[in-house]
Amino acid sequence: MDWRDMINKEDLGEPYASMYFLDISEICRIEQCFKGRQIAFRRHFKDVKKAYPELCLILGEDKARITAKMFSGEIVYFPEIKRACAEKVRKLIKEQFDGHNLSELSKKYGYSERHIRRITEKPISKSQPYENQISFFD
Description:
Elements lengths: L23 H11 L2 E4 L7 H4 L1 H7 L1 H10 L4 E4 L2 H4 L1 H11 L5 H8 L3 H8 L18
């Protein structure tokens, strides 16, 4: 099971959250095709197949037309889904981390082992002294 199967549409940020008429599999296909790219949606177009051929291949002509009209006149950036729903991905990583599976999580989520380590580290409380630390007031 891929980590993308564990997210819901509600976990996604913009622009994916605006695409209420798509299911999660269609959003994942858009992400795979357009991630990291900006698309300038024209205000007027006659033929959606000529204006947005990649979008038509992924979604079909009807949904591509709706998407183009929704973002008409805008430049839209399509981030990676893991960035669009970063909090959910961080939570999944923390839940699945067992102390010995850094490389497995790294491959699964596409992050470096160092980044996984940063996500899974427990923050140090500044109010509690370190173990064996002498108190200033003792």
